[in-house]
Amino acid sequence: xxxxxxxxxxxxxxxxxxxxxxxxxxxxxxxxxxxxxxxxxxxxxxxxxxxxxxxxxxxxxxxxxxxxxxxxxxxxxxxxxxxxxxxxxxxxxxxxxxxxxxxxxxxxxxxxxxxxxxxxxxxxxxxxxxxxxxxxxxxxxxxxxxxxxxxxxxxxxxxxxxxxxxx
Length: 167
Known about the structure:
By secondary structure, the protein is an alpha/beta fold. The protein is 42% helix and 25% strand.
């Protein structure tokens, strides 16, 4: 299994100098370390999880987003959602699995699921480019993130600014 944490640190309770530096720089957090180690331990019981690649783990105030390699999402979810349920119970947060995609809209669709995405517009201003994510007003309360968490996750996953717009 590949995670943001190196294989040595996954197996031990201590961090190597490289991962310690990442922790000091803010590239790793305690939450990322805990989720990575939990997934590694679960991989010992669930063989399909061993071949999964996890590119990024993004903890927010209300959830944890796990970015996997394209095609590895089902491995991390587990049969009948077993792995996600165990992670949610351990962390006390909802878990969102997103597969890596070069398409901005695919990532956003995965983030707002089960809410239907009405569209994505590009806004140009002197401050730069932003993506306007359009969602039906009736679905406002169904998005699994608050707006600040949503913007943070989209920025980390796509390196683009985004705003939610309800029609």
